Amino acid sequence: MKNDRYSIFSLLRETLRGQTGWKPVWRDAAPQASYDVVIVGGGGHGLATAYYLARRYGIRRVAVVEKGWIGNGNIGRNTTIIRSNYLLSGNVPFYECSMKLWEGLEQDINYNAMVSQRGVLNLFHNDAQRNAYIRRGNAMRLHGVDAQILDVEAVRRRLPFLNYDAARFPIRGGLLQKRGGTVRHDAVAWGYARAADRLGVDIIQNCEATGIRMREGRVVGVETSRGFIGAGRVGLSCAGNSSRVAAMAGLRLPIESHVLQAFVSEGLKPFIDCVVTFGAGHFYISQSDKGGLVFGGDIDGYNSYAQRGNMPVIEDVCEGGMAFMPRIGRVRLLRHWAGLMDMTMDGSPIIDRTPVDNLYLNAGWCYGGFKATPASGLCFAHLIARDEPHPVATAFRLDRFGRGAVIDEKGMGAQPNLH
After folding, report:
1. Distance between CA atoms of residues 378 and 36, nearest Å
2. Cβ neighbours of residue 119 closer than 8 Å, sequence gap 6 or more
3. C-alpha distances in angstroms, 46 versus 233, 266, 386?
4. Three-class HEC string of 45-102
5. What are phi and psi of 318, to 5 degrees?
6. Are 140 and 195 in contact (CB under 8 A)?
7. Closest CA to 202 of 30, 382, 54
8. Do the Cβ atoms of 291 and 270 come closer than 8 Å?
9. Secondary structure string (H, E, C) spanning 158-193
10. Do 377 and 48 form a contact (C-beta atoms < 8 A)?
11. CB atoms within 10 A of CB 132
């Protein structure tokens, strides 16, 4: 089934019909006996990979198997921030590639993902942090990425409601990336699913991978709760469950799974026009189109596969918000949830072939998974189709931990709960 292309004319037509002519956004496909490529994981990265395999590389006998439903995992459990304000040369080109793909995404997939380039402002609070942000901004600009250092008065003009005069951690300025912002997370999943479906990709929900079948050291397919599915190549894009799924092929990954909580407040009148991060603690906040404050902080510091959080981190996040924006204390919390973070030892991702023939890995996204969605899908599709890394993802090799070529973006060493 091919869906009609969305346009102003289709909107007008359905308005006149009383909205009765809309078709399902994608097919609820049943698994076929075999495919050229099977992607395990129906989140944003898996769906984007399937779309780019079909769109850019002409591989259309593709299946995406998802143990739950589309939007159930991390793609629907994040704070929707996009940015490319990274420091290290292994990361900046990749995330800037993702930013450029975000900027053209809605036209590319013919779906309103509500891309809002409202800006991302990272506050700094002391001289050392200012110097670190100047260094990061310079690195960004050397890679062609927009960056601007604001002094405290420029920050005050933009965000007058922050605590400038009686703060424990005085605001000294900030690093602004104007092209950063937010995107509607579930719309990204729906848009990629629809676009991939239009190109013939089978999206198979409620189909859990239970094993990886190998023959003579080569992957030949995936065992699932809906039967065996043969595959020429298999791509793992399982986020926080990457270690468990990779273990089915006998692989042990340099990854730990941690819980990351996010929060939404009651709806308020608009007053935050950008994404703001607190530099003296790990706290980030923006305001959604419905008026809710969307915010988060650090991961829970223990290994878990639970999609729920705990009170110590809730307290820590709220303390961070209160430290630079006291008025948040009067706001009522509407809901909170947790996603599973696949934390690598250096805080940077893995997009690479595995030691098992025809098995490919996309994992280890730490805090950067959602913002990386388009580039992750494009680079993983390139790897699967061409059997070589995409030019902007050459540093994301699985063996870098053994070679000592880690990409330690936060400079905290090989300790995943600090990334």
Report:
1. 17
2. 176, 177, 178, 179, 180, 181, 273, 274, 275
3. 14, 32, 17
4. HHHHHHHHHHHHHCCCCEEEECCCCCCCCHHHCCCCEECCCCCCCCCHHHHHHHHHHH
5. -65, -35
6. no
7. 30
8. yes
9. HCCCCCCCCCCCCCCEEEEECCCEECCHHHHHHHHH
10. yes
11. 16
Give the length of the chain.
419
Residue type, position 205, single letter: Q
Q: How far apart are CA 347 and CA 336, in angstroms?
A: 24
Give SS3 for 266: strand
Q: Is 397 helix (H, G, I), strand (E, B) or coil?
A: coil
Phi and psi at residue 82, in whole multiples of 5°? -125, 140
CB 78 within 8 A of CB 370: yes
Q: Give the position of tokens 């699985």.
A: 398
The encoded tokens of residue 385 equal 């189709």
Q: How far apart are CA 171 and CA 6, in angstroms?
A: 45
What's the average pLDDT block by block, 10 residues per block, for the chain (419 residues)?
Answer: 77 92 92 98 97 97 96 91 96 98 97 97 96 97 97 96 89 97 96 97 97 95 98 97 96 94 95 95 94 94 86 91 92 92 94 97 95 98 98 96 89 75
Please measure the distance between the N-terminal and C-terminal CA atoms of the chain and give it in whole angstroms: 43
What six digits make up the tokens of 361? 């890995």
Measure the CA–CA gap between 118 and 120, rounded to whole angstroms: 7
Q: Enumerate the β-bridge partners of residue 109.
A: none
Return the pLDDT at 411: 73
Q: 389: which 2 tokens?
A: 């890394």
Q: Which residues have C-beta within 8 Å of that of residue 185, sequence separation ≥ 6?
A: 44, 75, 76, 78, 80, 370
Identify whether the C-beta of residue 196 lies closer than 8 Å to the C-beta of residue 54. yes
Phi-psi region of 119 (alpha: psi -120 to 50; beta: other; left: phi over 0): left
Burial class of residue 159 (count of CB atoms within 10 Å of its CB; 0-12, 13-18, 19+):
buried
